[in-house]
Amino acid sequence: MKYKRVLLKLSGEALAGEEKTGISALTVADIARQIKDAKNLGVEIAIVCGGGNLWRGKTGADMGMDRSSADYMGMLATVMNGLAVQNALEAIDVPTRVLSAIEMRQVAEPYIRRRAIRHLEKGRIVIFGAGTGSPFFTTDTTAALRAAEINADVILMAKNGVDGVYSADPKVDSSAIRFEEISYFDVLQKDLKIMDQTAITLCKDNNIDLCVFNMSEDGNIAKACNGDKIGTTITGGK
């Protein structure tokens, strides 16, 4: 095994399936099955879910809402997605815990770093909900922060239909080149839109690798956890 502990970043849209919005039970069940296959390799898995399938803080802000309130609504959306993933995993006998950065004891455990690590050591999958607990931060930044806190070896960024990082948008520019490996330095220099710059800087400063891959291809989550060469790997080196 190349990685002992990974953090899997799932976008909200990935949970919506073909509907693009809401939560698709069939899609979530399929993702849970793939996560179980990856866990069976012996890797410890933590998950951060986005909330874009239910709500985006920027959408609310564009509507004239207070940005903090809009972002808090987005954090609640990530908890809803986390509970959906937890339910799908436990339906196939995978022990899972949801830890929320915003306290809501009736539905999730409060986020405590040592508790999260202990759950991972006991073989449970840990889902981090409610972002960082503060507005103005994306779930990409949450993924980078939590990966650093739990000493994850890599962040696996599961994309829906996107098989890596390109020099330009391949849907617009037919000459776009896919990188097999690139450094965070080059990502920042080329202004590649993989994650927001706060998240990229956190990964770079903490020497956490990032693997961007297509989760639509069955078995890719397990392959990424195993360190197989799929998608694009971003490293700290220049």
TrEMBL record:
This is Uridylate kinase. InterPro entries: AceGlu_kinase-like_sf, Asp/Glu/Uridylate_kinase, Uridylate_kinase, Uridylate_kinase_bac. The keyword Kinase applies. Keywords: ATP-binding, Cytoplasm, Kinase, Nucleotide-binding, Pyrimidine biosynthesis, Transferase. Inhibited by UTP. Pathway: Pyrimidine metabolism; CTP biosynthesis via de novo pathway; UDP from UMP (UMPK route): step 1/1. It comes from the Bacteria. The gene is pyrH. Pfam families: AA_kinase. It comes from Thomasclavelia cocleata. GO terms for cellular component: cytoplasm. SUPFAM superfamilies: Carbamate kinase-like. It is an enzyme of class 2 (transferase).
